[in-house]
Every structure is written in structure tokens, then in C-alpha cells.
Amino acid sequence: MYHQQLDDFPENFLWGAASAAYQIEGAYQEDGKGISIWDTYAHTPGNTYQGTTGDVAIDHYHHLEEDVALMAKMGLKAYRFSVAWSRIIPDGEGTVNEAGLDFYRRLIHELRKNKIEPVLTLYHWDLPQALQDKYAGWESRQTIVAFKKYCEVLFKAFKDDVKYWVTFNEQNVFTSMGYRWGTHPPKLKNIKKMYEANHIINLANAEAINLFHELVPKGLIGPSFGYGPVYPLTGDPQDVLASVNADDFNNNWWLDVYCRGEYPYFMLKQLQKAKIAPNITEADRKLLKSAKPDFLGINYYHGGTVQTNRLEKQAETANQKDFSATDPYLMQPEADQAQSPEIPMFNSVSSPYLAKTEWGWEIDPIGFRIALRQVYEKYRLPIFVTENGLGAMDKLEDGQIHDSYRIKYLQEHLLAMKEAITDGVEMIGYCAWSFTDLLSWLNGYRKRYGFVYIDRDDNGERTQQRIPKDSFKWYQKIIAENGKQITPKSQKINL
């Protein structure tokens, strides 16, 4: 759909940036904090790039005021952060650590003081290790009880100060990486356990949403999902069918539960045939139906291209080589055959039309518009973009970082979002990933996403100096003018 003129961004649009506790806070054993599964995982040799950990990260715990001052200087309207569960309840279910609550009180106070809307994520992958040890984490329904208690503590503590809340961040990613590919904690390769754990997390999400609506009636809550549209490699109807299958597998399996309270019928039937479907009780179905999110958080980096499943048609060229096992946003159902039954649905392939980042992720701003359109049309919930950004090996040159490639990437994606708004998508805001450089989970500190450069690397903490990049100044101007300068003919902005 072509528009001669684009609609303006909404007057109250929340221009923001995002982060996650384990990736920035550090202070992993300070002020009563307990150990999380990521503390344990990163401390295990061979699990992360050069043994990098979040023990210190970018030391946001001790740079809180400085970091928020930079956010205020940029003009941020919103800041999405996550709370470390083990900082609030060290063992996950017992005594509340008041020092942990005080840290987030300070953060929220600083944000409010600078007219920045706090967006609080309840769970961004860092389960308390004690719950993993005691209950096998998300494999047990007892963890739902613990999560509900943790949520209640935060809802009561911050209900008057935080309007926007996110339940789970990228459930599709942390379940597949943790229970299928074995590259995140708890480092399993068992697809049946993945689907069972995923179901338990769905129940925890529903419990949290219902409790929130009871305790925080003036707030808004929703999950944050790593979404990507799916393209058929060709116009061959078999490839088109594969894309329908992949959309069910990669997206609908989670979003239908979040937004409709039920699992997609065709996908569930295949899992039941393979005897790997989760155990879903009548009480579970009732609970899932009862929980209604107020908005949907979307994390967008890229979509995916698929062709007919490899049992019916083998990939023929190097360009069509399956690459999904190394990409958290593309999941391939035919992998790990020693661990799980065969479910021939689709084969993920590389797109011949898209450039890639230096990390191998496809760059697809049009896919962003498609994603926003697809999700809004299907579920009719306001959308809050909770992540979108470019990871790169930024270089510090004469005390400056000239990241024109990041500006180009973000500008193209903001244009796609503005086009989606003009199409009719209801948007709350946009949080770029990320505000500062941070620990990139398995990739250490070399993969940088931030508007603010942090002087540290994989070998140590260095000075931890904060240095705004060129993209900082660019986004500052975007926010000041509410994105009016984002047009189809927009040129590079003078900094």
C-alpha cells in the first residue's frame, strides 16, 4: 500500500530505549542479591564467548544516576528495563530483599524526576538459581507460585509509579535456546520438556496478568514477543504452505495463547500426534482464556524465509542452507532427531534478497512494517515495540564513535514503523535496543547495540566511561521533533 504522505507519529508517542538487568547491572552478589541461572551458566567454562559474564557488566548498579542523566539529555520519553528476580527475592520464593527493592525505587524515581516513563519487565531470562535447583525451574508448576509472589511484591511496591509492565521477554527465544538448542540455561536438548516448560510459563503469564489487573487497575500489561514474518522462498504452492506452517510454529504458537487464550489448532494436533504436546488441563484452558493483555510488546530484528520441508525437497544451494539452529529468531522443527520425533513442516533458508549484519542477521525494514501489520490485524491490540536495533563492532576513534550504519538501520526501520502507523496500526511507543552497550549474552561485549559507548571489553571492565555515539545525537533529534523528519525522501541528518 502506497501513501503520498505519511501520518505523524502520535503526539504522546513514547520514544524510548531498552535494557535487561543481567546485561547491564553487574553487582551480582551485592546488597543481598541471590544467584540467577545466568550467573551460574556464565561462570561455567565454555558457555560464553571468552568466558564473559555479567558479574560487573557495564556496572549500571553503581552508575544509575549517570545513566539516567544521559537518558534525560537524549530526551527519552520511556526507558524499558528488567528487574532481577533474585535481587528482589534471593531464593526466588522466600524473604523479600528490601535493598533490592530500593535499587529499583531509586531508578524509577530518577526516571520520573526526568519525565521518563518507566517500562518494567518482570522476567528477562534470569530465573533465580534456587528455583532451578529445587524445582527444575520452569519444568515445575511450583515455579508459577513463586513467580506470582514475586510479581505481587513488585505490583504493590511500584503500582503508583509504573504504568507500563511487561510480563515475559521473548518466551519463544529463551525456551527454544534453553530447552531445545541447549545454548542457554538450563542447557537441555529435549523438545518435549521445551513444550511442557513453555506451557507452564504461559500459565505463569496468565496468573501475572490477572493479578496485575486486580492490584494495578490503572496500569497496562502485556508480554514481549520476538516476532518475525515468514516468507516463502518461491511462489511454489509447496513453499507457500511451508510459510503457513512456519508462521504457526514460530509465531502463532505463542501469540494465540497470549492474545486468544488458546493454542493454535493445527500446530497442537501435530504435537499431539508426535506425543510431545504439553499436558493441558481444563483448569489450564480456563486460566489462559481469562487473561487479557492490554498491549502486545514486539521485539523485531528480522523475519525468515522457508521452503518445502527437507524430507520432501532437499535444499539445493549454499544460499538455501539451513541456518536456523544458530539464530534464536528462527526455529527449525526437524532438528535434534535423536532427542525428538520428526515433524516435517518447513525448512528455514537464507533469503536471496536481503543483506546481513556482520553477525549474519538479515536486515529487513520492510519486514518490520509487515510484522506490525500482521500482528495488529490479527489481534487488534495496541503495539509497543520493545526492542529493535543493530549489533555491530563499533570502533572508538579519537574519543568518538561514528556509527552511521546504525543510524541508517534505525532510520529505515522508523520509516517502516511510520508507514505501518499510516496503514492503521495503533502504536504506543518504540524502545530501541539498547540505550548503552551491554553484555550480549553469548557474544560478550564485542557486539555493541547502544547509543552510548561503554569503555569496557571482553578482557575487563576498563574505565566504564560513557561516551555518546553519533546515533545518540541523531535519536535525540528524532525525539525532539517527534519523528517528523522521518520521511520516504529523508536524507542523512546533520549531527
TrEMBL record:
GO terms assigned for molecular function: hydrolase activity, acting on glycosyl bonds
Record-linked PROSITE patterns: GLYCOSYL_HYDROL_F1_1, GLYCOSYL_HYDROL_F1_2
A family per Pfam: Glyco_hydro_1
Keyword annotations: Glycosidase, Hydrolase
Active-site residue numbers: E387
EC numbers, comma separated: 3.2.1.-
The keyword Hydrolase belongs to this UniProt entry's keyword annotation: yes
Domain of life: Bacteria
Family classification: Belongs to the glycosyl hydrolase 1 family.
Protein name according to UniProt: Glycoside hydrolase family 1 protein
Species of provenance: Lapidilactobacillus mulanensis
